[in-house]
Amino acid sequence: MTATRAMHSSHWGAFSALNDNGTLHITPFSGDPDPSPLLQNFENVLRHPVRLATPMVRRGWLEDGPGPDDRRGADDYIAISWEQAYSLAAAELKRVAGLAGPEAVFGGSYGWSSAGRFHHAQSQVHRFLNTSIGGYVRSVNSYSSGAASVILPHIVGDMNEIARRGVSWQEIAEHSEVVLSFGGLALKNSQVASGGLSEHTERGFIQQAARRGARFISVSPLASDLPDEAQGEWLAIHPGTDSALILALLQILKQRQWSDEAFLADYCVGWPQLVAYLNGEQDGQLRDAAWAAEICGIPAARIEALAEQLHGKRVIVSVAHALQRAQHGEQPVWLGLVLAAALGQPGLPGGGYSYALGALGHYGKQHNRVAFPALPQGKNGIDRLIPVARISDMLLHPGEKFRYNGRTLTYPTIKLAWWAGGNPFHHHQDLARLRKAFATLDTLIVHEVAWTSTARHADLVLPATMTLEREDVGGAPTDRHLIAMQQVAAPYGEAKDDYSIFSELSRRLGSEQAFTEGRNAREWQAHLYQQMQEKLQQQGISVPDFATFWQQGILELPQSDDAGRLLRHFRRDPQQHPLPTPSGKIEIYSATLASFDNADCPGHPVWLTPLQQPDEQYPFYLIANQPASRLHSQLDFGRFSVSQKRGGREVCSMHPRDAQQQGIAEGDVVEITNPRGTVLASVTLSEKVRTGVVQLPTGAWYDPVDPLAEQPTCRHGNPNVLTLDIGTSGLSQGCTGQITVVQIRRFTGEPPAVRAFEPPVISRNPPQASAAAGDVAPGA
Ligand SMILES: Nc1nc2c(c(=O)[nH]1)N[C@H]1C(S)=C(S)[C@@H](COP(=O)(O)OP(=O)(O)OC[C@H]3O[C@@H](n4cnc5c(=O)[nH]c(N)nc54)[C@H](O)[C@@H]3O)O[C@H]1N2
Ligand SMILES: Nc1nc2c(c(=O)[nH]1)N[C@H]1C(S)=C(S)[C@@H](COP(=O)(O)OP(=O)(O)OC[C@H]3O[C@@H](n4cnc5c(=O)[nH]c(N)nc54)[C@H](O)[C@@H]3O)O[C@H]1N2
Ligand SMILES: [Mo]
Fold it and tell me: What are the Low complexity biased-composition ranges (predicted)?
């Protein structure tokens, strides 16, 4: 490719790129006030040796045929041609669908993929399975907000209204007096948004609010969750205990007659039931500051003082996603809302509840008048689902029953899983258990850009292009810029985009027309653009045609000022604008949730002691939060991500006092252990971490010393070796990966070298290589 500058976009920002023989020179979009350093991750990855250059088949699967296989994750691979890969994949899908129909195929394919809206890999998988075999077993909800997205509709309304369209940053900058954030407002998190984020504005808004005199209070185990610009206060809490703290705040507000009883009576149901619980009318336990202090580690006097800081002020309460990624994660989500209601704030400018503010660049933003359409996924002919984080349970317990949102469902029997655009060996909990779950499959097919751990467990690995190697349109409903993602580099090796792969497979399965509708990728992008253009036209807004947009590289879209609309309208007139809850009001007591009869999520919010608590053997909480140096596991081999590691290992942080007691010094290699396995990491000491807490971000590629070990050791620093694989509750069955308990010690001896970015053993001479293209058959 000639060295020309191309416009492009990613989940972490828009940019232009100059390809200098495989090395990229990136210039952030000139309209971005605070570009993300994550852009640097693109610079060195195009021709990295860990990229996938050709299709691969796992030796055990090729030699023995499809079927459960404990060697997944430890086997070697054979490079094959596309012709061979296509015939193997098509034949296997036909076989499985022929035996048991779409019920035997898991097509959830959870994952973030890349920013382009057409090549969105998960949508491509869904469309392919719908059009070729009539459907697939799907997954619902997300790892992000598994608990919140299920409980919020019962108690206040759709999550998007409370998060994405919640109180805007603009309002907060102008009106809020107190910004109380459980889990903080880390700028590392709001630098990303799915589909793209051309303007990073959070730092500016926080600065503006602080200069005006807004007081930021961050309740978190880590001081770093609140940006310096906020000049705020840090309340260092024990992980997983925010519910107890909020219950005590409510008890204090009630007892001091600071609760807004008029608001609670007119706009809410169930306050009296909660007050009875606060007062311990049933069980004799008063939920006051002294009670909460014992649980959450914040002194009772400080809790009392916090209630005083909130009283009589315009307060915005935010609860980070992180809090609900834990057992009983529904409770802090619910209690944050109740706290805002008890303060009488919902619906006031800059006041109320903004779920997950700052967790992503989408939240607190204006919305485009018309969103760029998604690729239509076709119709799924079956209705079989799992909550997304129950993947191992599903594979290990086919036919068993489970609870979800008031229903009792049954796990299907899955033979084939198809994954593109996600990395379960990054995102799921208890990786040894996940490996065993994947060992039950007949076949796992994975499309990847590189040898991730998930690719290393696959039977067929199909090399996908990176976003930089193809054309697409980048856009998010909260980003006023639509970006023409122009091609920056030629595809690596024989990599193909997911759409081309599925088009060819569809041709072989006789469903090509249904899948492609006769369009190539460029024609699809123009088609989707035209749909947006027509919708804008209906509102009297004209935008240039696709060809002009493509040439310009960027298009500014009109937005609407509707942030906070749900609660603002509700406050103005609750009869005219009731909430979409059974009562039409905020539900502090929910008869619906009570009727579901889940002991772990009853009819009003409660404090429930979690299963995992530090003890003598495992005295530390582990926080496994989002990484500052990348998006999840994406481009972990990228320049910025690697620059933040030490000796190639991920860096964990802990308090110097804890370190001293454990005989650990700055820069040591440590082993972090619990009954599920061991993780090696480099350690840094910081007083910004609460004592009793170790923090290790997610996303370092899983690199087990012995992949088949019952309790594996990861040399690189993937915390999901350690996390526990249970649901948040019988209500939502969300992911609980954020916290677990561990022991931490200095690693003695020579630590093993990290090998995460070295490809597995690859043979270029398949046993039947002499056969004509397409003749390679599993078990042949
Ligand atoms: N312990 C713990 N675990 C967690 C979390 C936590 O807080 N703690 N957070 C959870 C959360 S919120 C989330 S959202 C998940 C994220 O989990 P994932 O979304 O699975 O993580 P990503 O690393 O973004 O995975 C995307 C994969 O798609 C690949 N890819 C990119 N572009 C393309 C493409 O065009 N085609 C194909 N075929 N592949 C492509 C990338 O190489 C990458 O491997 O992790 C969850 N896991
Ligand atoms: N740079 C970067 N940004 C990202 C992502 C990424 O991978 N990289 N992922 C994006 C995605 S998909 C999502 S869903 C969001 C997730 O957004 P979050 O889930 O909110 O993000 P985390 O960083 O996991 O957690 C935020 C902070 O919550 C604190 N915390 C953890 N447990 C507790 C607790 O029990 N109580 C309190 N009070 N605080 C606690 C931790 O100190 C942590 O730093 O982030 C998005 N932003
Ligand atoms: Mo997420």
Answer: 766-780
451 is catalytic: no
Kindly state the tokens that stand for 603.
Answer: 């009819």
Residues 764, 780: Cα–Cα separation, whole Å: 18
Kindly report the CATH class assigned to 147-365+563-596: alpha beta
Which ligand is in closest contact with the Cα of 455? 1
Distance of CA 223 to the CA centre of its chain: 22
Residue 539 has a CB neighbour count (10 Å cut-off) of 11
Q: Kindly list the domain boundaries of the chain, sorted by start residue.
A: 56-140+378-477+481-556, 147-365+563-596, 620-749
d(CA 529, CA 424): 32
Q: Which of 12, 61, 77, 110 is catalytic?
A: 110
CATH topology of domain 56-140+378-477+481-556: Rossmann fold (3.40.50)
Q: What average pLDDT does this structure show over 51-65? A: 97
Q: Radius of gyration of the chain from Cα atoms?
A: 26
Q: Is the pLDDT of residue 55 over 80?
A: yes
Alpha-carbon distances of 628 from 19, 56, 636, 699, 715, rounded to whole Å: 26, 32, 11, 10, 20
In the predicted structure, residue 769 carries a pLDDT above the cut 50: no
pLDDT 10s digits, 257-274: 999 999 999 999 999 999
For 737-755, the pLDDT digits (tens) are 999 999 999 999 999 999 9
Report the CATH architecture of 620-749.
Beta Barrel (2.40)
The reported pTM is 0.97
Is the pLDDT at 778 greater than 90, yes or no? Answer: no
Cα angle 108, 112, 113 (rounded to 5 degrees) comes to 95
Per residue in 678-737, pLDDT tens?
Answer: 999 999 999 999 999 999 999 999 999 999 999 999 999 999 999 999 999 999 999 999
Pocket of ligand 1, beta carbon within 6 A = 111-114, 119, 121, 143-144, 325, 420-423, 426-427, 447-450, 452, 464, 467, 498, 624-626, 631-634, 698, 719-720, 723, 737-738
Active site residue 143: no
Ligand 2 contacts (CB < 6 A) are 144, 182-184, 186, 188-189, 191-192, 219-222, 225, 237, 239-240, 242, 320-323, 325, 359-360, 623, 625-628, 631-632, 738-739
| Strand runs labelled E in 465-576 | 472-474, 481-485, 554-556, 559-560
425-453 per-position pLDDT tens digit: 999 999 999 999 999 999 999 999 999 99
The pLDDT tens digits for 137-156 are: 999 999 999 999 999 999 99
Length of the chain equals 780
